[in-house]
Design goal:
Order of helices and strands: HHHHHEEHHH
Structural class: alpha+beta
Strand content: 15-25%
Number of strands: 2
Shape: flat
Radius of gyration: 34 Å
Largest sheet: 2 strands, antiparallel
Strand order of the largest sheet: 1-2
């Protein structure tokens, strides 16, 4: 039981959380120097170890969800949204006069087209394939100053100088 105590202090739990974000259970157990079955047992026995693993993995899932949403935004398409709609019920008598009226609000699903977002496309491509979609262009140039003074004198004599 002494080995489990090594992993229940604050710093060790932070380490477990960080490792959990990038490792499978087997890899996490290997880093901790225990077997996978021991890790599973400890996670059942110690809620703080289990919570650390859960927190670490939650960040990874959230990041994956954000990446998926960004790609969907870049591609565009249709989405289903829920909207509140007001429905009015009116009752009439045999003579056509209004007898009662009531309203209710119901949630309905609607399909909506969302166009591709140019900003999301640009962001996605520049970060996923920077070698092909970088924003900056690198150019090599050489400047030769030889004859530059003669050029400036000639321009001044012709009256096309810069006026400085």
């Amino acid at each position: 039981m002494a080995k489990i105590d090594k992993w229940t202090d604050r710093e060790s739990l932070k380490q477990i959380e960080a490792w959990a974000a990038e490792c499978t259970d087997k890899e996490l157990a290997d880093r901790m120097g225990i077997s996978r079955s021991t890790l599973a047992k400890w996670m059942k026995e110690k809620s703080d170890i289990s919570d650390s693993v859960t927190r670490g993995r939650a960040d990874v899932r959230a990041c994956a969800d954000v990446e998926k949403s960004l790609l969907q935004r870049a591609l565009g398409g249709t989405v289903r949204i829920k909207k509140a709609m007001k429905i009015r019920h009116v009752e009439y008598d045999d003579n056509g006069r209004r007898v009662s009226e009531n309203e209710e609000i119901v949630m309905v699903e609607e399909e909506q087209y969302v166009p591709a977002d140019v900003g999301a496309i640009r962001f996605y491509l520049t970060n996923r394939a920077p070698e092909r979609w970088q924003n900056k262009v690198e150019m090599e140039t050489e400047i030769h100053a030889e004859g530059f003074e003669d050029y400036l004198i000639k321009r001044e004599l012709e009256g096309t100088g810069s006026g400085y």
